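=== Structure Prediction Worksheet ===
Name of assembly: unnamed complex
Input type: mixed (protein and possibly other molecules)
Chain count: two
Listed entries:
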Amino acid sequence: MSAATGTGRATVLYDAPGPRTRLRNNVLTLLFGAALLLVAYLVWAKFDEKGQWNGKLWRPFLEADTWTELILPGLRNTLSAAAVAAVLALVFGAVFGIGRLSEHRWVRIPAGVVVEVFRAIPLLMLIFFAQYGGSLAGLIVTEFTAVVFGLMLYNGSVLAEIVRAGILAVPKGQAEAGYAMGLRKNQVMRLILLPQAVTAMMPAIVSQLVVLLKDTALGFIVAYADLLNAGARVVPANFSNLIPSVIVIAAIYIAINLALGYLATWLERRSRRSPRSTAVPAVPEGAAGDEVTLAR
Amino acid sequence: MEAVVDELPVILHAFWLTVRLTVISGLIALAWGTVLAAMRVSPLPVLRAAAAIYVNVLRNTPLTLIIVFCGLGLGTVMDVQFSRDDLSVNNFWLSTIGLSAYTAAFVCEVIRSGVNTVPMGQAEAARSIGLTFLQTLRLVILPQAVRAVIAPLGSLLIALTKNTTVAAAIGVAEAALRMKNLFDAHGDAVIPLFLGFAAGFVVLTLPVGLLFGWLSRRLAVAR
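=== Predicted Assembly ===
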């Protein structure tokens, strides 16, 4: 049953409406529409009372300097932290995900412990620990390093679970056929299991990358000069327009994440349309859909 | 190790704050998320659109940004006050608003995916005995839908427990911020302190995972 897009179709929950129901639905639409508009107006009025819609506060965003000097450097830092952390997390995830499937207990158990531990610890604590633990060891830990380190460990552990689920989702016969042809363990993994698993895992991986990108905003707390830092510290410090600035920054985050989200949906649809893999698309453990992975 | 033992009251107090943040925002998010889910499956396009916009905006925004908006935007600029004389009480409730608003978007999506697991025949049977949309939803669909998504809801609660650390962004002295302060105070005991706080989170989240796993098996709808 496809989900209804208009009122004219039946779904799990309601029938296609008859004339009376249609009338009632129209009346209710009007009522609820008015109520929502009222709520929106009240919020608007409340902000207006504090002068938040004053053009003076919004004008900085029409000037090129605000963007080139203040916001875009922040965006660049956010994206570079996300990119470096994504690459490291993918490597971490591949190593520990495959490690957890090893036949050797001395590989499997430590890999499992690492993955479970870093998934259980809040990311912010990992970032703090990277800063203080690193300087304790005599290393110079920049904010960038601390943020990337935390993102790598946390998201890498989540990706490890996705990799493991992806490899397990490849039917057993695939590996058995590989062994029957005389391939070695690493050849079976490299030539048969991983290519199919990666196709199946793609949507889950992209969803996790959205989480990773969102989590770079934690850098704000350790004063990393990221996009949120630009929007909540730098721009308001210049123009004292915190609320407009945070709204603009939020729009940038939402645009990037929605684009990545559509990419994930597109990949999922594509792999369902023309199966290049015998594995069913992997959903991380304990999830009913991709919703839970997005919640970190 | 002595640092952890000496500071145990401080650590326990920090975790008590984490627990309070988690429980209060969890309850608000569950209620608000259920309302949003009902809106998203309703026959009225207005409500469906409003809930869809809310969910997509909130879950694509970094939690840190939402908390900062609540703390500095609502708290400082808009002058939303919960307590005139106690800043920590104020920030506690402001971060609770942020955490519940954020988590509700995920609760909504989880419950909606639960609604999709309920067989068509259930709603048809409900309609054929004359139940209205709200009665169908409340008496037939939601009870089965929620029972189908107990485990994902548990994962959300665990994620929320860890997400409460983001309240540190506006100075709520929960576990992560306390840990940082203790790092400053006991520079030589960083590793024991970190292990202590990490263990604290494991103690908080492990039973939740086990409990929800057990509940989901026990309450599963037999079909």
